[in-house]
Amino acid sequence: MTAAIEVSHLTKRFGRDVVAVDGLSFTVAPGEVCGLLGPNGAGKTTTVRMLLGLVRPDRGTTAVLGERTGPGSRVLARVGALVERPAFVPHLDGLTNLKQWWRAGGAAWPPPGLDEALALADLGPALGRKVKGYSQGMRQRLGLAQALLGRPEVVMLDEPTNGLDPGEVREIRRVVRDLAGGGTTVLLSSHVLGEVEQVCTSAVVMDRGRLVAAGSVRDLVGAAHSVYVEVDDPEGAHRVLEATAGIEGVRDEPPGLVVELDGASRAALVRALVEGGVGVETVTSRNRLEDAFLGLVEEGRE
Amino acid sequence: MIAVELARQVRRRRTLMCFIFLVGLPVIAALANRSRSPSSTAEVGTRALFEVSTASGINHALAALAFMSAFFLVIVVSFFAGDSVSGEASWGTLRYLLIRPVSRGRLLASKLSVVFTLALAATLAVAVSGLVSGTIAFGWDGVATPFGPTMPVGESLLRLAFATVAVTWSLGAVISFAFLLSVVTDSPGAAITGGFGLMVVSTILDGLSSLDYLHPGLPTHYWGAWSRLFFELPPGAAPFLGGSLPDTSLRPMAQDAVVQLAYAVVFIGLAAWWFRRKDIVS
């Protein structure tokens, strides 16, 4: 099966000194939701721009749905994208912006999937108002609607939750899950780990233009899960957990404890504590992609 | 793509403002000149057109073209051309158009056609406004040529139309230079200023007589040459006092056409070359 997105040996310099992307290669399989993860300035946006034919690579190639991409490649008609921030003609209303953008490609209005896209933007009567007066969140939703016009097979979202409030972030997450559920391939670039962790099936971690790690989110996080618990009786908890199977280790991290699980589920951990007479106040995951990410980036820098 | 681009530009408030001035200024001039009567002159050029501007509506239209094309039209077309691509870049919409995808060549071609269409529309607005306001103020008649007989109405209108095209054409270098800057920079202000600046620099150089070998190649040197369409000498005209017959040939118009075309080809060619290779980081 051909990869939905393929980046090979990609290098881009700006000017003499700035290497934005340096020998980057990765692939995204069809139907996957891949997170492109890295700190600010890691080269994520430049990579997305090269995939979309906006920036010419110095070396290497990009391909989408099996076709090489460059300026104006026809295959881009099957791609929806949000690059950096959404952008519209300020003196035109929301719907006219979508209409003009769609027609600029020579396609007839309305596109397939218009109603879904508009429902998603959820702008109501504001759709008929000039974009000039839109809030950041409204622009973002309209941008997302634009990216999804015509039901693209591949969707690239570059930092889609920048500047959004928590409710809007949750909405974007839901949209990405729906897309994935419908078989759309999604590339989501972000510097926010939680975002990638929550919606992506695979991730590409990059730092300073280079690939640091790539693989499924599960593999990147690692098999051993750590859990942070706060209990009413830490000493009691130590005692109980030493006697529980599937626990690799317990260490204090005031005010709570970090428990490394090796086979035991979180439910089993809580059950053991409660049955041992220890009250549990909070249980949260630790050492997930965040730890993996920081670890990987640091390893790469050494 | 052309329809999309035209709709984008036409619905802007600043485009509307430009046209309000383009239409309004000739009307104001007609009102101001109502009590003046035509006078005669021995000069060939746009200034002579002003002397007879109150002879008829068409004469007023010609005078309007003459005074508007020297300054205001230059600003307006620099505006249209300079903002064309850089405006899109500064909105951020350029990247979205290109990934639609619209090929870079097609994007540039449609932008450029809209720029030239708007430039022609702007000149036409001046001519029509001048014709209408002039006819109300000075009456309907053929063109009174500065030192010749009155031209028949049909011929006058035909030449007015030709003059309108020639005026637009003479802005070719300014338009294509502003357009080139519009592609090279992402700042509309810089591109607009650049187009206008080309006119200023060229006018200054044209005024330095020590550089006269340069003059025929300057983009503004033959501006106003179109006015010769209205300087026909009557058959058997006698030389003016103390001189020979003035030169009324249309040669400078043809030279202007060639000069403008040459600049346009170079600037637009450069713009296309640059835009093909440009990394879109806006």
Structure, described:
The complex is a heterodimer of chains A (302) and B (282). By secondary structure, chain A is an alpha/beta fold. Chain A is 33% helix and 29% strand. Chain A has helices spanning 44-51, 94-104, 114-121, 136-148, 166-181, 193-199, 217-221, 234-242, 266-275, 289-301, and strands at 5-14, 18-28, 33-37, 59-64, 67-68, 79-82, 154-158, 185-190, 202-207, 210-216, 225-231, 247-253, 256-261, 280-286. In chain A, helix 3 (114-121) packs antiparallel against helix 4. With 282 residues, chain B is mostly helical. Chain B has 12 helices and no strands. At the A-B interface, helix 2 of A face helix 1 and helix 7 of B.
Question: What is shown here, in short?
Answer:
The complex is a heterodimer of chains A (302) and B (282). With 302 residues, chain A is of the alpha/beta class.
List keywords for this structure.
heterodimer, A: 302 residues, alpha/beta, six-stranded mixed beta sheet, four-stranded antiparallel beta sheet, 10 helices, 14 strands, 33% helix, 29% strand, B: 282 residues, mainly alpha, 12 helices, 66% helix, 0% strand, globular
